[in-house]
Amino acid sequence: MHHTRTNSLRALATAVLLALPWAARAQTAAGNVGIGTTAPTQKLDVNGHLRVRGLGGAGPRLPQVLPDGTLGLLDNADSSPVGTAPNLLNGANGTATGRGPVAVAVNGATAYVVNATDNTLQTFDVTNPANPVLLNGTVPGSGGGGPGGGTSGLPIGDGPSGVAVRGTTAYVVNANDGTLQVFNVGNPAQPTLLNGATRNAGTRTGSSPSAVAVSGTLVYVVNSSSNTLQVFDVSDPASPALLNNASPTGTRTGSAPSAVAVSGTLVYVVNSSSNTLQVFDVSNPASPVLLNPATPGGTTGGTATGNAPRAWP
Questions:
Q1: Cys-Cys link to 175, which of 9, 22, 159, 239 (CB 3.0-4.6 A)?
Q2: For 111-168, what is each residue's pLDDT tens digit?
């Protein structure tokens, strides 16, 4: 391979040398070629940037930087696409959760999972990603919130569909109850419901909330049956207040919104039935403004996506 690399570099050096004006090149008695230097120490010594417009030859090859700073050619390189295949860290199948897990959020070394069948919130210590440890329960199958039990966890509202976490507070939306629940997770082993006293308590949302996102003291909820985006002020986590209440259920979205994300003063919503991405300006959270209507002056348009868009963490 060393012989092949040397020949390849010599050919490259010769081609470059012939293409350059005499003032820009130098060649030593040892056959070293310099570009931008009069004292080349390698077969091709470039003082500056090198632009390659094409490579020829048979077989897959990749240029590589050698330990001494020189450039070599890696012959017969693997022709597979560059990248590493995902590697499952925690066993052959993963770590058991409750039944029907539908959403997950991570904050620091803790992962929060909501299970739609068991109606539970589970907290996992993921300090060692190869061995997530359930913090708020110890005996699998010992009784979740749903019929028939399931992996343990904190019983919550009916049909949890989304979870978001900021600091020591977790936000869960429950599709069947139509509620937003706020939990203190300062002690992840013992989440505590802040805005209610019973398992099904919480702040009313629109119909069938499907996802939730949080930024600062604002929580964004999309409702798949109401087709709305709601903005809640959670400065007082015990009493979230709906800000965009011109309509009881919030700001109109496309059909069946299924996911929501926030970045600065922009909120992104995808709608699984209308197959659209919508971008809202929430500089004034009491009055979100759709930035990409399908038609001028439209209110429920958006940018087309593939069929049934969903969010992936």
A1: 159
A2: 999 999 999 999 999 999 999 999 997 544 444 443 334 458 999 999 999 999 999 9
Return the closest-CA partner of residue 104 out of 89, 116, 93. 116
The tokens for 51 are: 């632009």
Instruction: Collect all residues with Cβ–Cβ distance below 8 Å to 222 and sequence separation of at least 6.
Output: 209, 210, 211, 212, 228, 229, 230, 253, 257, 258, 259, 260, 269
pLDDT band at residue 7, thresholds of 50, 70 and 90? low
Q: What does the alpha-carbon distance between residue 235 and residue 210 come to, in Å, rounded to a whole number?
A: 22
**Strand, coil or helix: what is 259?**
strand
Dihedral sign, Cα of residue 60, residue 65, residue 67, residue 69: positive
**Phi/psi of residue 212, each to 5°?**
-145, 145
- Maximal C-alpha separation, the chain: 88
Q: 150 vs 232, which has greater pLDDT?
A: 232
Domains along the sequence of the chain with CATH: 2-75 (no CATH), 101-304 (2.130.10.10)
Tell me the C-alpha distance between 20 and 191, whole Å.
Answer: 71
Q: CA 12, 14, 18: angle at the middle one, nearest 5?
A: 120
User: In this structure, what token pair is assigned to residue 80?
Assistant: 């597979």
Residue 178 predicted with pLDDT over 70: yes
The 3-state DSSP composition of the chain as helix, strand, coil percent (nearest 5) reads 5, 35, 60
DSSP code per residue over 93-157: T-----SSEEEEEEETTEEEEEETTTTEEEEEE-SSTTS-EESS--STTS--SSTT--S--EE-S
The answer to whether 105 and 159 are in contact (CB under 8 A) is: no
Is residue 70 within 8 A of residue 89, CB to CB? The reply is: no
Please choose, from the candidates 12, 53, 51, the residue with its C-alpha nearest in 3D space to the C-alpha of residue 33. 12
Distance CA 147, CA 218 (A): 34
Which pLDDT band, with edges at 50, 70 and 90, does 294 fall under? low
